[in-house]
Amino acid sequence: MSAGVALTVENVTKVFGGHGQRTTALSQVSLKVADGDFVCLLGRSGCGKSTLLSLLAGLTQPTSGSVDTHGHRVGMMFQDANLFPWLTVSGNIELALRLSGVPRQSWRDRVAELLEIVQLPQAGDKRPHELSGGMRQRVALARSLAQDCRILLMDEPFAALDAITRDGMHEHIERIWIERGITVVFVTHNVREAARLSNRVVVMSPSPGRIVDDVAIALPRPRRMEDAAVAEQSGILHQLMDLHDTASALERLAS
């Protein structure tokens, strides 16, 4: 994989509200992610993980600091598949192709290619309500890939799935990441999921959100959630999070 930089965050602070109701969601966050890397943003609820992802996607702007995706096209996948229920699976993907400026005459072939990538080649004529939760998320993944993104942002996309379906989705996203050489930034509060998927875990702490640790995950692939090495790594990450939570609480008491 390329040694280039896919995205750069420099001294980003994000403040919401005003007139005495200001909330600092992120404070002085800096981060670099290499091309082709798989990075998990890990932290408890309220630490600013989703806010940071929205900044990377360009859905919101920082109050101060800068975000640079170095000209790479960015796609985003959410916890909810957010498929349009009145459109078929193909129609949902075609909408993304149209918004990305892909010529109409290419849509049919591109949809077929994308459904093959997510291993749903026969699902094009189905409506979202006919699909399982895992299948809907695979369609959402195909729709994100339809944007020809080089950076895929994923905001707890498997949190609502049962354990068996989630494990299958882990295998799908890992396979696609390897085959396509894309950069993935994946938000989760599930420590074992972070150890299972990523090359690198960026630990965030709340009040305000900031990066407090950056951990390389050197476990061999393929991995599974039940692997002893994944369990051991997740235990280390748990300890780090508890340590930083304690330090943050003491810091707030002292201020």
Structure characteristics:
7 helices; 255 residues; six-stranded mixed beta sheet; three-stranded antiparallel beta sheet; alpha/beta; 2 domains; Rossmann fold
Describe what this molecule looks like in 3D.
This protein is α/β, with parallel strands linked by helices. Helix content is 38%, strand content 24%. The protein contains 7 helices and 9 strands. The strands form 2 sheets. Strands 5-6-7-3-8-9 form a 6-stranded mixed beta sheet, sandwiched between helices. Helix 2 packs across helix 3, helix 2 (89-99) packs parallel to helix 4 and helix 3 crosses helix 4 (133-145). It starts with a strand and ends with a helix.
Q: Total helix count? A: 7
Shape, per Cα inertia axes? globular
Straight-line distance between termini: 45 Å
Number of strands: 9
Low-confidence stretches: none
Under CATH, the topology of the largest domain is which? Answer: Rossmann fold
The level 1 CATH classification of the largest domain is: Alpha Beta
What helical percentage do the residues reach? 25-40%
Based on secondary structure, the structural category is alpha/beta
Examine the secondary-structure arrangement and name the CATH architecture of the largest domain.
3-Layer(aba) Sandwich
Topology as H/E string? Answer: EEEHEEHHHEHEHEEH
Sheet of most strands = 6 strands, mixed
The average pLDDT score comes to: 92
Strand order of the largest sheet: 5-6-7-3-8-9
CATH superfamily of the largest domain: P-loop containing nucleotide triphosphate hydrolases
